[in-house]
Amino acid sequence: MEDHTDDRTLDSQHALAFAEHIISTLREPFVVLDKSLRVRTANAAFYRDFHASKDDTEGRFIYELGNGQWDIPRLRALLAQILSNSHPVEDFEVEHDFPALGRRSMLLNARRFPPGGDDADLVLLAIEDDTDRKRAEAAVRSSERRQRFILESIPQKLATARPNGDVDYFNPQWAEFTGLTFDQIRDWGWKQVIHPDDLAEHVRAWRHSITTGERFEFESRFRRADGEYRWHVSRAVPMRDEAGGVVMWVGSNTDVHDIKRAEIARTDSEVRFRRLFESAQDGILILDAGTGKVIDANPFMTALLGYPHDEFVGKELWEIGLFRDIDESRAAYRELQEKGYVRYENLPLESRSGHKVEVEFVSNVYAEGQHQVVQCNVRDITERSRLQRQVKEQAAALADLDRRKDEFLATLAHELRNPLAPIRNSLQIMKLPRVDAATVERSRNVIERQVQQMVRLVDDLMDVSRIVQGKVELRTERVELATVVARAVETARPIIDAKGHDLAITIPTESLPLEADVVRLAQVVGNLLTNAAKYTEPGGRIRLSARRDGDEAVLRVTDTGIGIAPDMLPKVFDLFVQVDPIATRSQGGLGIGLMLVKNLVGLHGGTVEAHSGGLGAGSEFVVRLPLMSPGRVQPEVSDAGERPNEPHPGRRLLVVDDNVDAAESLATLLGLGGHEVRVAHGGTDALAVATDYRPEMVFLDIGMPGMDGYEVARRLRTLPGLGRAVLVALTGWGSPDDRRRTTEAGFDHHLVKPVEPAVLAALLAGSPRRT
To answer: Domain of 513: which CATH number?
Structure first.
């Protein structure tokens, strides 16, 4: 307020006029009061702003203006202060109700006028309407309270930051979550709660947003007060001024830990599913339940049917070989839609290349989100089905083998009883008194023939055992096929003659040399001839022929016998197979002869085939053998055999066998040959007898109880005077392994029971070489 007076003291009138002149020039509301606090005058601004008139104002007490709601005590104290001294009062705040305006908030500024005079009786009162400002401030305060309430009520952790990124506010949720105070977190202190693995990338993203002003969003883990890290999504947006500059950042941090864990679990589950889907060793198809078309197929499925993955997708089942045609495919799919489940134990499929496979097909309908899908599991059971069929076939074969084994045992018992009956009868005849010499000779011949028959049976059984175990060894030499045939015919001649068969033999005059085991090959041809004789009615025809065919010798044995049924032809060479069990029992046979033929021919590098026109049409067996090449000519084996030397009388012999009959009969036979013979029936007795007797040759059984023949042989070698004795093993076992064991035990010879008398004579007459 300008001072337009000088230092003179003005009288009351002059002072009032001067004051009225001054306030009339001012824009702010002014009133002039006298000492009694009555209004002397007011300027136009007062009347305008407070909607007052001179009549309602001049001459009235200041506290009577308006509705009389002035704070009278405070106002009087204010004016009294003004009048009592010259100090002005600044911004005295009061409120008052005006008729036209209502309640107003005002700031009063008062001073005495004229200033500096003790006799001044006027007060200049400036009135500033502060209502709008006060209301604005109140609104701001109310807004701030509401905003703070909101910030502190929201569950998210909220923060604000200055444009440079320094955080200047955190709501209480932050302090509660982290256990840190605002001072510990403010500015960039929040970095301490970020997981170390997330910190660098989080800060980098935040600095990028500060630099560019772009929206900030990042996922990271925050450490809770108890030390647990929880996933949060942090977002911040810039608040800009009118010029577009960033004035502050407003951000939130939302706990998404449970959602994140669920997402991670779902992702892990999807990864596991995809890994299983891709690596499954069953075919998997995913179909749209509505259309039935393929949505996805795993690699096993595509490999199984030979379609690339892209060609699977969008196709129906019938288009990829799962069903034979459209109708069948759609019928199967309708069944699936009705039941929600379809299973085929064995579904034949065809791959794109035409390859046949068998599968087990199972499909289920299930919900995948809002959609229905079908999962088809396709298991390749081609190999399993093959094995199952094979097992069934093997089971049938085993059952058949078991049946044939039973038949074999029954036939074996029959074959063994057959020779025993004439042997027993012949022995009984020989015991009768007054039997003439011719009858005794016939009985002896019967016994000899029947024993030979039993020997052949046992030899065949032993041969089967060796073949099954792979222990047959051939002693090959150069031999003419004619020689083999001659030996075989000699063997089979008795049964052929006994049945009155017509045997015709056609052998070429040219040489047909073979590298063969003459004994084994003669056994082959003899078995074929014997077989033909057994299964041909008396008086039938048997033809044996041989010829050269390139570098092979071809031998045929043909008969007019009972023939072979077509279903039996592939089986005739199997073990224990008998073409006609009834005929077999009547004719004799163990069902092992042809098995021996096939295997012995195979050992010689040849083949054998069976042919027949059926039952009653006879049979033909064709043997093919490789001829010996000209560059491999060897001396032919002599057919005459070794002619035994004359027995050497006077040898000291010891027979050791726990079988008393066997030991005594062999001792008698050797004694009749002019030798001195002692007998022992056990290992201990043998050692005791040998110590004093000192035999030149010992016939020693192997399978004795207590001390077996191997141990007896070893001990005999240690006795004085027996180092050069000839030890002969007598045993029912004749395999190469058995012969090796007797050699290791110190034996000089190995003879298989029963021993031919001619072999004994040759052994006694010859040198003590290994046999």
So the answer is: 3.30.565.10
